[in-house]
Design brief:
alpha/beta, OB fold (Dihydrolipoamide Acetyltransferase, E2P), elongated, 15 strands, 5-stranded parallel β-sheet, 5-stranded antiparallel β-sheet, 8 helices, 253 residues, 32% helix, Rossmann fold
Length: 253
């Protein structure tokens, strides 16, 4: 079985070292290299690699933010590549996740690859991904909630107050703000944007939409327990979250 590999690191020499060491391993195919988090997200979605060597400390989106943006069904096996000190790596060991501490030796690299092969061979990546998601949640820094969003266009910069936004729509690696009759495009994924917004103000109703809770007019029952979210402007959005969870978030009686 050939393992499809993606290399994500902002340092060209680090990517080159990993690529060189991979040539010494059998049945591995490098499907891409990414210098930053945004390219990594797009490439993972497009190429669907089996294994990703992922640098944690990168400018812009870091390694954890990359994984937060990836849909669970697309989550690859991950080997973290990091310059964290050994004390900070205790969290990785608790969750039994593999990492390469820079600078790493070829023998340690080979060991990490063999562990990844074993996970893929035994199809145990589902359990591995659960541990990965737990680590992401544990290591996620406290987000600073923003009250306004900066929209850059070719000729101006707009400042949009979050309270003015009716709902936000995912469009690939972009997010579309719906503000009254206007729309604005942010060069940011919906998942990354959700982390910056106040969870008491914005509700994720489905995979592709965040809504301002103050703009929700009603929830219309459909069938088989599904609901439609209706906004004050008439916009209708299907809801995939459980009604009990939504009721708790909206503090319905």
């Amino acid at each position: 079985m050939k393992i499809r590999v993606l290399i994500v690191d902002d340092e060209p020499l680090a990517r080159e070292r990993i690529r060189t060491l991979l040539t010494e391993q059998e049945a591995l195919e490098v499907v891409g290299e990414c210098p930053d988090g945004e390219q990594a997200i797009a490439t993972i979605r497009q190429e669907r690699p089996d294994l990703v060597f992922l640098d944690i400390q990168m400018p812009g989106l870091n390694g954890f933010q990359v994984l937060q943006a990836i849909e669970p069904e697309l989550m690859p096996v991950v080997i973290f590549v990091t310059a964290y000190d050994k004390h900070a790596l205790a969290a990785f060991e608790v969750h039994a996740l593999d990492y390469l501490l820079k600078p790493f030796k070829p023998a340690r690299f080979k060991e990490a690859v063999e562990r990844a092969r074993e996970h893929l061979r035994n199809r145990s990546s589902g359990d591995l991904n659960q541990r990965l998601l737990e680590l992401i949640e544990e290591c996620k820094p406290a987000a600073s909630r923003t009250s306004r969003l900066v929209v850059k266009t070719s000729d101006r910069i707009l400042f949009v107050k979050t309270e003015q936004v009716d709902w936000i729509e995912a469009a690939g690696n972009y997010a579309v703000l719906h503000v009254g009759k206007e729309t604005h495009i942010l060069r940011e994924t919906l998942g990354a944007l959700e982390d910056r917004l106040d969870p008491d103000q914005f509700l994720r109703v489905n995979r592709s939409a965040l809504v301002n809770v103050e703009q929700i007019k009603e929830l219309q029952p459909l069938f088989k327990g599904d609901y439609m979210v209706v906004l004050k402007n008439g916009q209708q959005l299907p809801m995939t979250r459980g009604i009990r969870e939504v009721q708790a978030i909206l503090r319905f009686s």
